[in-house]
Model the fold of this input.
Amino acid sequence: MIDILDGNACAAWGARRAKVQCVPVFPITPTTEIIETIAAWKADGKFPGEFVVLESEHSAASACLGASMTGARTFSATSSQGLLLMHEMLPIISGCRTPMVLTTVSRCLSAPIGLWPDHNDTLAMRDAGWIMLICETNQEVLDSVIMAYRISENPKILLPVIVNMDGFVHSYTRTEVDVPEQKLVDKFLSHPELEVRLDVKKPMTLGIPAMGLDYMRYRQQLHKAMLDSFDVVDNVQKAWAKVTGRKYEFLDEYKTKDAKAVIVMIGANSTIARSAVDKMRKKGKKVGLLRIRLFRPFPEKQLRKALEKIDNIAVIDQNICPGMGGILYPEVKMALSGCKNVVCNYIQGLGGNFVSEDDYVDILNDVLKAKADDRKWQM
Amino acid sequence: MADVDFNIKEEMKKPHLLTGGTFACAGCNPVLGIRLTLIALGRNVIMVNSSGCMTLTATWPFTPYRIPWVHGAIENGGSVAAGILMGLKALKKDKDTHVVVYAGDGATYDIGLQSLSGMIHRREKIIYICYNNCQFANTGHQCTSATEKYARTTTTPPPIGNPLPRKNMAKMMAMGGADYCATACVSFPFDFIRKLRKAAKVEGSVFIDLLSPCEPGWLVKPHETIKSGKLMVESGMWPLYEIEKKKITINHKPEMIPVKEALKIQGRFKHLTEEQIGEIQETVIKEWERITNGRFWEAEEY
Done:
């Protein structure tokens, strides 16, 4: 079914097609429309699951933990301060190896208050033990929510997944989207057969203290599950491509093969950067784009393979870690440790500040000239 | 209404659902409260714990629980339970399972008030039990808003002690929409069990504030924790009542022994002056009059 949908509707459709059973939520701009869409479906009898608006994002995340532990397929969504309020629960959810999907609709952090997107909210969750898929298009959001359940519920993985989109740029912008038929999704994503952990017939004690090395073993297992999920994510993406023809990779490489300079970035602005690459290519400049789609687990090896022969790299950070710089930058540098590339960092688009095609042309021209690593702000 | 299906003597003969071997202190009343809860409600219980002393009853690789039990965090007992209820409803398993929260007073009166209030407001079919030892006992006995006025805690040391009176949580929850609300005390096990049996039949949210003396926190001897609870009730400092549809029923008529007798055996009140004891006595008498003279819902004076 081809429709014209915004990113929020895509997330809601993803959840509906995945036949989620529990949706504990709390409203926040620019996520609210996801919640409203599901609420409207519930009112019309089109959504058979449980839908509850709790009294805070922290409580919504807590309810996700409880709901998923009963064996119900669980979905929630939030942004910005809401995500930060949920933050305490995120390592608990992953630590308890609780499968679920959370859509984060990126919005900048307070203070000062801003409504528009940057990635400081979602990237702050990078150490929470969640698999993180960061999307570029509305279609990718919809597809990723469905794929995320198959990844999350894999018995070898049992990890929660964040599917990220940019506020406004995705959430309130309509584009042409293919909503897969229910039959197709049902075949791709079996009916949830999650382990029932809170079962009065088979009692288990959950979320308990573990001391000393036992604690470390738990954390090590969590890390191992994260690393094991590379194969699972890969297989799920391939399976999805088989049934829909839409191919997704850990890293989305665009004209990088013979490139001299490459932009490395995440999120919705990649679309703008892509057209800047095209513009430069028309002038004979060998430039490309690499978008990181799978942010956690971090595809370090793949990133190194993709970038090691590129002379000049521009890492775009639509976020700021005050006192350190961009968040992506050191991760890319780590992947390239020992390589001789020139890697520059550009901070841009904080608080959703508009970034144009020409801005990326400027960055590419700048990085092509760069002789050594540098860190800059594009205002 | 007689509880015909339930014979406490028979229930006591069954294997305990909370077994021995917890890390609880000698004379711990909160842990006894769990045992009483499970005697009253039986096997079909999913218990949610908020961080506190009772979190340490199970420590990997040991567990004393023969029921499903989950600890989330400290401030979210009500919402983890709400999630569990959502899941049970989605899977059509909610009919014969009791979702019970067992959380301390710090996790209830203070940091978890929001999630409790949400749960009560939504009238979720959840039994929320606050094991009230009048302090953050697990972290070493700090003051909560359930701590009695003048009591010594590590954050309200003598000579002043706690300068604030405690919140009236049962009243707050009853006003907030709880379908059944009660106070109880571990020292009165039959009263508590009867309340739980009643709570199990309520189609809505339940809040029970269970006074549970704490040996290291109250500075009482382990064998005197039960006695100290009894004295709190008999002095009128902890009246036992239940509230249904805004109607309050007194469940036990206290002997109204002088509060001095109740305070005497608790080391945490050792520093009190005669004047302060007199003030507590006066407050208790006033409060008792309010409850018994139909003025319970009036605003309290502080």
About this structure: Chain A touches chain B through 41 residues (CB under 8 Å).
